[in-house]
Structure formats: C-alpha cells, structure tokens
C-alpha cells in the first residue's frame, strides 16, 4: 500500500476528557483508552472491551454512535486501536496478535477482572484469533460478535478479483485485511479454529442485520453481490458460528447494526449473565449450487471508458453500478434498438468498506430492451473502474455453478430437473485465476504466513453439451481467487452473459476450503 493511502482515512475529532486514561497515543495502533467509570460501578460486572472493524478506528463506537454512553452508564468500558487505525488494514493474524497483547494489559490494569469483548465486523474475527490462537481465552468471559464475516464476505472476494484488479490497486483495496476476509480464506480459518478445545472456552453470541438498503445506497449496492439476506456487507449466514448463540437478526444495515440504540439492549443482559442455560444453534455452512445473476468487467480509465453488456429477453430489471476512484455526475447509455446515446444523472455513493475511497454510480432500468447495450463514463483524471450489472431475471437459473466435493473445480451445468433444452450451440467460459501463494514458515500448519507475489492463469473452454468443468491449477498452498465469465444462450437462442467470483484456499496438504 502506498504511504499516502492513510490520507483517505477519516479524521477523528478526539477529546481526551472523554476517557479516564489513555495508554499510548490517541489514534495510534496499540493504544488503549480506558472509559470513564460509571457512578456506583458494580465491580462484579465484567469490563467491556470494544473492538473496531476493517478500516475503522475506536471512534466508530462514540462518534455518531451512542454505544459508549449507553454501555458506560453501567459498565466499565475500554476502547482499542488496532492496525486499521493507521490506515493500513492487517489480517486477523496481525490484529489478533496485537489484540492479545492489549488484552493482557487491560486484564492487568483492572487487577484480574474478567473481560467481555464486543467485536464489530472483522473485529470479532480478530477477537477469536486472539483468544483461540494466541491463548487469551482465560482472560475473557464471552464475546458478542456484531455483523462479523466468520465465513468471509463475497465483497472481499470481489475486491480481490480480476475485474476489480485495476481499481483495487489504485485505491489500496488489495490490503491484508481485505485479503484475509475472502470466503475461501475464512473457510480455512474456520477449519483450523472451530475444532480446537480453546474454541469452547468462551461463550459466543452473534448479532446480524438483514437490511441491504435503502435502495441504491451503499448497502443495497453491496447486497446486490451477496447471496442471501445480508446487511449489505456481511451475509446473515456468514455472521453465524456453529457453536454461537444468535441473539438477533434485525432490520439493520452494516452501519446501523453497530449503533448502541439498536443493539445494546439486545446484548445488555448477556453481559451480566454470560452463561445462560440456552441451547446453541446448530448452524452449518453448506456449499450449494449457485444461480448466476452478475456480469462484471473492469480496467484502466483515462478519459472515457466504455463497456458493453447483453440483456436477454424477459429481464425484469437491471441495476448498473460503475465503481471508480472519482466522482462522476453522468453516465452515458446506448440502448440496442436506437443505439442513441442518453445521459443519465447519477448520485455518487462513497464506499467505506472493501472499496474504501471509491465511488459507486448506479442506474436502475426496469424491463430493459433485449440486446446489446453500451455504457461509457468520463473522468477528468486517470482512474480505474469496476463495472457490475445485476440481473433480475428468471434466466439467472439457466446455468448453475456446481462445486465439486473437493472444492477444486466447478461444473457449469443446466439444472438436472430443467424442463428445457438449450440450443446445440457452443457456450464459452473464460476463467482467470489469481493465485497468491503462501510462504511456508514454522507456524504454517496453524497460521498462514506471509504471501508472495501474484500469479495469473487464464483459460478458455467451450462445449456444445450442457455441462462444462473448470478446474483450478495445482500451484500448491495459497489463495485461488477465480473469476468465471460465461457466455451462453437461452432456450430461445438469445445470448446470455454472467460472471461468478469464487475464492478457494488450499493448505499445504492440498486440502481446499
């Protein structure tokens, strides 16, 4: 990441008087801020430690948020700064190691009073890493996990994909924090974490949101790429732990789910009685066939950038999203029939998560014309872009992405129960694999070590029958981020285009996650 990348981080208005003591320097990684003790503090209650998420700092709990005020009225509170505070997001391993050291300091400061952790988004993953892999579970009574991507986020996959590559490199989205939250990487983390005895030493509680909105906001844009209910950044499914107690799934987006007004009443009593006699939910993450609803392209942009996309017959609605590093006010579209260019006004929405610093520009089209559309966008300065199309169409189920049991290949096939036959014409698949190898070290069996340079592998296949298999290259241990572009035909012979992005982590024994 470039040194100037931290300039994009929000500047926090900091007031020392809001805290009883600051251990370290304000807004620096490693700093611990001791909240003011409430009057009449019950010392039998645990100390509440609030942990930030990806690209956040501690102020997310007390700037435009009443969480500090609500929790601090009854509990002793503590706020932390992890690596993200400096504008350089790190993986859960680096943050977990730093957090482990901070928990030791806090435990000593409060002379052995037990701690209760509140982790927002990636912060809950960092917390699990500190407790389970860095051995600090004995300091903690429980963990409340708020909107955490325990199984990763499809948006992290997208940010590290080939279509997003130019843009991600430009805005610094290819950081260690985002890489660590890819679905394959987090599935591997679950495999090396959940079976350890240390995972059962603390009680875990989860909270999630299922509001990917309002329409054409940042969170509805995120939700268009995520499978199933989500808060626009993290799916409800990913927020769950197989041994966790789910406290609530509420009508909140990813920003609203961390607000004290919304969720403090949900977990307040849990802080007082962290081990209720409640039955754990048995949440099991299962790989399933995937409908294809997205088309994605990306590249450099110098002045005007243009793309084309094909709309098959019967599409109810499409949402177009042009993501680039600069704000624009208009997008030019040319429809298939007239091919006349029309300017659409757009309201830029700034990303605050996986594409931090980029701008989303969206257009929604109802019952769009069938055929080839053209889109163009002009920026004053050199930029980069990611172009996404979300199709609301019955044809999304035409081709399905079926994973193999070993997770190293996928079959693109027509559902077996389909009542139709596709035209006897070739359908083409191009897939690009971004392989980032892991460099083995003495902790490699437990903790993925630093990664080496990227390697790209591109392949193209076509088939006349209704099945086609694509297989990952065998390059050893590391992360395989695969972009799959499909160009086929509907039963009536019209072109259909879709894109899928999948991430797989392969360990040193060749097992895929």
Can you describe this structure?
With 513 residues, the chain is of the alpha+beta class. The chain folds into 3 domains: 256 residues, 3-Layer(aba) Sandwich (Rossmann fold); 104 residues, Jelly Rolls (Sandwich), CATH 2.60.120.380; 116 residues, Sandwich (Immunoglobulin-like), CATH 2.60.40. Helix content is 17%, strand content 34%. Strand 3, helix 1 and strand 4 form a beta-alpha-beta unit. Helix 2 crosses helix 3.
Topology:
Elements lengths: L18 E5 L8 E4 L11 E5 L15 H6 L4 E4 L11 H18 L5 E6 L1 H12 L6 E7 L7 H6 L5 H7 L4 H5 L2 H9 L11 E7 L8 H6 L12 H4 L5 E6 L9 H13 L17 E2 L2 E18 L5 E8 L5 E5 L6 E5 L3 E2 L8 E8 L4 E22 L7 E4 L5 E5 L13 E11 L17 E9 L3 E5 L6 E12 L5 E12 L7
Parallel strand pairs: 3-4, 3-5, 5-6, 6-7, 7-8
Antiparallel strand pairs: 1-2, 2-4, 9-17, 10-16, 11-15, 11-16, 12-13, 12-16, 14-15, 17-18, 18-21, 19-20, 19-22, 22-23
Helix pairs in contact: 2-3
Q: Beta fraction of the residues?
A: 25-35%
* Uncertain residue segments: 1-12, 440-445
* Structural domain count: 3
Rg calculated over all Cα atoms = 24 Å
Query: What multimeric state do the chains show?
Result: single chain
Helix-strand makeup class:
alpha+beta
CATH architecture of the largest domain: 3-Layer(aba) Sandwich
End-to-end Cα distance: 27 Å
Mean pLDDT: 89
The CATH homologous superfamily of the largest domain corresponds to Alpha/Beta hydrolase fold, catalytic domain
Number of strands: 23
Biggest sheet character: 8 strands, mixed
Q: Could you tell me the CATH topology label of the largest domain.
A: Rossmann fold
């Amino acid at each position: 990441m470039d040194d100037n990348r931290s300039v994009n981080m929000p500047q926090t208005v900091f007031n020392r008087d809001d805290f009883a003591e600051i251990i370290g320097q304000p807004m620096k990684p490693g700093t611990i801020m001791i909240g003011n003790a409430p009057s009449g503090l019950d010392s039998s209650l645990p100390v509440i430690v609030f942990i930030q998420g990806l690209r956040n700092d501690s102020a997310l709990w007390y700037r435009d948020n009443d969480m500090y005020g609500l929790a601090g009225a009854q509990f002793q509170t503590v706020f932390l700064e992890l690596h993200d505070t400096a504008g350089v997001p790190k993986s859960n391993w680096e943050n977990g190691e730093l957090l482990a050291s901070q928990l030791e300091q806090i435990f000593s400061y409060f002379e052995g009073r037990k701690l209760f952790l509140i982790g927002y988004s990636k912060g809950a993953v960092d917390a699990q890493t500190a407790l389970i892999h860095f051995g600090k579970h004995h300091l903690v009574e429980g963990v409340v996990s708020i909107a955490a991507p325990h199984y990763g986020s499809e948006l992290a996959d997208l940010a590290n994909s080939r279509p997003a590559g130019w843009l991600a490199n430009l805005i610094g989205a290819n950081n260690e924090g985002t890489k660590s939250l890819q679905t394959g990487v987090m599935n591997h983390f679950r495999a090396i974490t959940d079976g350890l005895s240390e995972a059962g030493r603390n009680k875990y509680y989860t909270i999630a949101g299922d509001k990917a909105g309002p329409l054409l906001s940042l969170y509805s844009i995120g939700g268009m790429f995520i499978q199933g209910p989500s808060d626009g950044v993290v799916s409800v499914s990913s927020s769950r732990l197989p041994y966790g107690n789910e406290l609530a799934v509420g009508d909140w987006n990813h920003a609203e789910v961390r607000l004290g007004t919304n969720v403090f009443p949900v977990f307040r009593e849990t802080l007082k009685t962290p081990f209720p006699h409640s039955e754990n939910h048995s949440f099991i993450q299962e790989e399933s066939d995937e409908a294809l609803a997205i088309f994605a392209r990306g590249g450099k942009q110098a002045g005007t950038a243009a793309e084309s996309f094909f709309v098959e017959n019967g599409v109810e609605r499409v949402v177009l999203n042009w993501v680039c590093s600069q704000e624009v006010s208009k997008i030019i579209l040319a429809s298939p029939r007239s091919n006349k260019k029309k300017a659409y006004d757009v309201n830029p929405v700034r990303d605050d998560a996986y594409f931090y610093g980029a701008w989303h520009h969206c257009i929604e089209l109802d019952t769009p014309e069938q055929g080839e559309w053209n889109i163009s966008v002009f920026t004053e300065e050199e930029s980069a872009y990611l172009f996404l199309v979300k199709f609301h169409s019955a044809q999304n189920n035409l081709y399905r992405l079926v994973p193999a049991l070993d997770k190293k290949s996928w079959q693109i096939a027509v559902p077996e129960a389909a009542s139709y036959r596709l035209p006897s014409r070739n359908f083409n698949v191009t897939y690009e694999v971004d392989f980032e190898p892991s460099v083995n070290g003495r902790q490699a069996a437990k903790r993925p070590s630093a990664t080496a340079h990227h390697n790209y592998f591109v392949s193209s296949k076509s088939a006349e029958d209704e099945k086609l298999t694509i297989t990952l290259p065998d390059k050893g241990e590391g992360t395989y981020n695969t972009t799959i572009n499909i160009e086929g035909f509907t039963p009536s012979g019209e072109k259909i285009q879709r894109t899928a992005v999948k991430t797989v982590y392969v360990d040193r024994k060749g097992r895929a996650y």
